[in-house]
Amino acid sequence: MTAMQLRHAGENAILISFATEAGDEPAGPREAAQVRAAVEAARDTLGDDLIDLVPSYASLLVIYDALRTDHLSVTQRLQSLQPVIDEAIAAEGGREIVLPVYYSAESGADLERLARECGLAIEEVIALHSATAYTVYAIGFAPGFAYLGHVDPRIAAPRLATPRKRVPRGAVAIADRQTAVYPAVSPGGWNLIGNCPQRLFDPEHTPPMPVAVGDRVRFEPIDRERFLALGGELS
Amino acid sequence: MSLRVRQPGVLSLLQDRGRFGQHHLGLTTGGPMDLEAFLLCQRLLGNSADCTLLECSFGGLEVDVDTDTLLCVTGADAPLLVNGKPADLWTTHRVHRGDRVQLGHPQRGCRNYLGVVDGFQVAPQFGSTATVLREGIGGLRGEKLAPDDVLPCRSDTRRPRLCVPPAERPHYAGQLTVRVVPGYQQQHFDRLQQRRFYSAAWSVSQRADRMGYRLEGPEIRCDIAGIVSEGICLGAIQVPADGQPIVLLNDRQTIGGYPKLGSAISIDASRMSQLIPGGTVHFAAVSPHAAHNALHMHHWRLQHLPLQPLPEE
User: Fold this and answer.
1) Model ipTM?
2) Which CATH number covers residue B274?
3) Contact: A10, B262; criterion CB under 8 Å
4) Is residue B139 part of a domain?
5) Which helix (H) or strand (E) holds A165?
6) Rounded Cα gap, residues B61 and B110, in angstroms
7) For residue B231, which residues of chain A lie inside 8 Å, CB to CB?
8) Is residue B241 part of a domain?
9) What is the pLDDT of residues A15-58, one digit of tens each?
């Protein structure tokens, strides 16, 4: 079991990091599960002393109310969470969410080029991308942007040399061994391979996001007709 | 009952204290860059600390008043006119339907807080009215103020007029020493780089905004190019490959992968946000204990500083 480490990040912030196991990836599903468990445990133990939590790949930033408590008390309380986290990950938490994707040249501007560069048929790229249950490692960059990993090395592709000014909402994309769905129109440098008609971030909806850090996501290929029926838009 | 915007100024944003508890969705905090001036504006008006005020950066605001209430401007040293007559900052003014309020461009500092009794009445999103332009969330339509925007407010004729005694008002100089709680990634910067960071006079660059203040000075080298993306707190000082530090502020992205030297304490991050490009920053390391004490003393002062009653106008 990898032990957690607590470190000062600022006047009211402590970073819990989970040492990653040896390997070339920054974090694996095990660290994601630890982070997910730590989110719940930190919420419970800090109660009203907590201001915010930022889960990421192998760490959880805990921001506390320094007018109500102090770093000594918070450190002590967070240190006591190790057994709770160990127990929670042994129980295997996290949900699996299935997102529909219309993979095509018209919904994924880089699909054909990516397939060519990877030396694969388009169908093979789609099959490989939709075969994996991805772990949600972090949410950030923009509201609702979930970093998912890891894509099969055969379809890993570097970011574009020049990012696009406008990536459409719902774009499903690959960067290195990460994949993601753009929750809103934004600039972006990832390789676009398809589009997901389901909203990934909807301020009017509760909860606003279908996924959380530590969940697993699978992609289900759908055709054009189904994509449009589900409210998908082609730009 | 409202204020109507004639001229929105350079960058005027509705802000409450900030959006908290939403980082897990990737939403940042927003909120007032200068928390001290913001909180004193609330106290002068008899408001709770989380009412919605207007943060006006670099001045240029002009509004028509459509209600009877108390109005107050705190922050940067900018000329305030009520019906064309000069009016004091850090002071509440009784305004009436038909009055015009103008805030000119600041001479010292760059951010002002304009408030009315009980703040502006706009619907919160994710628990807060704080406007974050990058996210398109909060305020009016997630945007900065535009001409003809209407800022709903309540009327009040009962609360007393108050001012912050002149000797107690913040002085916004062109230079500042920012206290830093050193972070654990400091180990990736060798002793020479650390000395360089704490001894240099840093200049605020043109690229200083609500996301972060970029500073210019000697190049600070780090022995790693990046880290696995992790949460970023207010005031975090990250050093990208160009060796020029960035102090991350209210509208920062919630996670990031640049190595960090430490984190500016919030009081000084607030003060720094009043600097304009060309302003000078020095850094000084403090322990977490010292940071904690400074925060408590500062907060005590903001809550208990005696406000001076004023005669009715």
Assistant:
1) 0.93
2) 2.40.100.10
3) yes
4) yes
5) strand A164-167
6) 13
7) 9, 13, 15, 53-56, 59-61
8) yes
9) 999 876 544 456 778 888 889 899 999 999 999 999 999 999 88
